[in-house]
Each structure stands twice: as C-alpha cells, then as structure tokens.
Amino acid sequence: MNEKRRSSDSLAIPENCHPKIRQIAAYWNSKHPDAGVLPGRQHLDPIDIPQLLPNVWLIDVSRDPYRFRFRLIGTAIVEYAGEDNTGKWFDETLPDFDPTVFIDVVETQEPSWRRSPSRMRPYKEYRELERVRLPLARDGKTVDMILSLTVFFDKEGNEIKKG
User: Fold this and answer.
1) I need a labelling partner for 21 at 20 to 30 A (CA). Which of 2, 5, 53, 96 fits?
2) Lowest-pLDDT range, 50-54, 121-125, 136-140?
3) Number of structural domains, the chain?
C-alpha cells in the first residue's frame, strides 16, 4: 500500500500522481484562510473545479463514536459503486468498511494519499484506485468533513473516464 501524508499547509504527494489529484490538492491548499488553519466547506466553491466534480466526494464526520456519512458523491463515484449512497452512513452501506484512514485524517488534521488495487469492487473493470482525502474544518481546527477525490484505473493502468 503506497501512502504519503504531510501537514495541511503543504500536501506531499508523489510527483507521478494523477493530475486530478494534484489539482484538488492545489485547490485545497489555496483555500486555507490562514497559516495553520484548515479550510472549511464554506471556503470551497464547486464552480472553481467543475472538471473534478465527477471524481469528488464529501464525507461528513460524526464523533462519539466516529461515523462517516456520504454528503456528496460525484457521478464517477456513483457509477463505480453502482448506486448513489448520498446521505447514507458508510458502516451501513459498506459491510467491510474500515474507518482507520478517515479517523487518521480527522485526528491528525492531515491529508492522506493512496494508490492501491480496488478491493471493494474487484469484479468491475476498475482495477486500481488513486485517492486523496483532505480535511475540512468549519472552525479551522476541528475536522467535520473530508474532501476526497478518487481516480479509477483499468488493468492497463489507464484512467477510466466516466461520470
């Protein structure tokens, strides 16, 4: 599993990551209201990133205990999943859901990047996924949402463009 993380002020991702990952990371970095303060949902405007929206999803964070809910799901994500889970809890829709990466993003307030084989839908044409998860905090400190972007790859390593 390839994974890199870094502080919220300068997301470290591999130079060879997908351009969409670089674009969403640059957009997120540009939205920090002050040094050391996380951007919140109120700082984002979908009109700024229309080309990325099919691959974007927003995740609500609930605490005590941690739970995660699909707030917004891009069309490419819906197509991959085969259903629209907007408004549903991860643990109710994904029986094998492991919240570890999400909890880590929340607690460390740091982004997470990963490229790995698809485990949830291995029977689909998607063979590999590349994801970035970026913490958002309405108050600048307490992560209450995660901005994520996923790129799907076929068995030859080419991006599958749908949605």
Assistant:
1) 96
2) 121-125
3) 1
